């Protein structure tokens, strides 16, 4: 049997979070049933959260099963060689009604040693931000473990961390070790390594409905944090009908593609491609068939699907390795 070649979408995996809200429903029409849905995992092979195909001939199959059966066709020759049958990225939408915890992710080496996991390099695209909404990304200036611990103990951590006011279209690339937090009133698209390892260092002293506070990982975080101030914001061009480079890293490449009309795409079979629709509507045409997509959709183009057309009026993030 050969892999049916078409653009694949998956059932969202919805996550309740203490800081979540309802914008995943109001903005993307995701089928959420609570007032505290914080995340929609769009494309995942994290253990216990495996994406299931929602469309076409492969509907009902898991992403892991597809990769096991057709590793090179789905992942691409280069990615299959590098990662075996592991899908190396995780795609999410996040709705922060309240502030997220201040946290950090370990690098590959530390994550492998402690958790037998990838590290968690990630990228944020701001899809919507309330007036004055802010994120925390790293230190204001070079710091040290000692200064950090002192400020953490004194509850004055914000004095040494960098806060940035954000607006729609802003992009931030967070290498592992960057201490960070998404502030209240922000919806983001997140692209990251396949990892669910987070060290929470401060959670604003909040408790859940049962009066219980969430677990902190203060000791684990000490060796994971990069205490050097780093520039995380990415500037990028917005030329229509063109893949404008935004992030180029060993973990993933992201382009910004403002679609106004038709674009033909030809690619090698090195890597899969993912399109996340930030705004508007578009279609993918392949082998004489058209597939319709809208804002909030995340589409996996198997590596073996090498020729297709994009058509519509939309803003896309184009991601591959």
Detailed description of the structure:
The protein is mainly beta and 321 residues long. It has 2 domains: 222 residues, Jelly Rolls; 77 residues, Jelly Rolls (Sandwich). It is 14% helix and 40% strand. The strands form 5 sheets. Strands 1-2-5-12-7-10-14 form a 7-stranded antiparallel beta sheet, with no helix packed on it. Strands 15, 16, 17, 18, 19 and 20 form a 6-stranded antiparallel beta sheet that branches. It is globular. The mean pLDDT is 96. It holds the Pfam family PMI_typeI_cat. Its cofactor is Zn(2+). GO terms for molecular function: mannose-6-phosphate isomerase activity; zinc ion binding.
Give the arrangement of secondary structure elements:
Elements: E1 13-21, H1 23-26, E2 37-43, E3 45-46, E4 49-50, H2 63-69, H3 71-75, H4 77-83, E5 89-96, E6 102-104, H5 108-115, E7 122-129, E8 134-139, H6 145-153, E9 161-165, E10 171-174, E11 180-182, E12 186-193, E13 199-202, H7 218-222, E14 233-234, E15 244-248, E16 253-266, E17 273-286, E18 289-294, E19 298-301, E20 307-320
Antiparallel strand pairs: 1-2, 2-5, 3-4, 5-12, 6-13, 7-10, 7-12, 8-9, 8-11, 10-14, 15-16, 16-20, 17-18, 17-19, 17-20
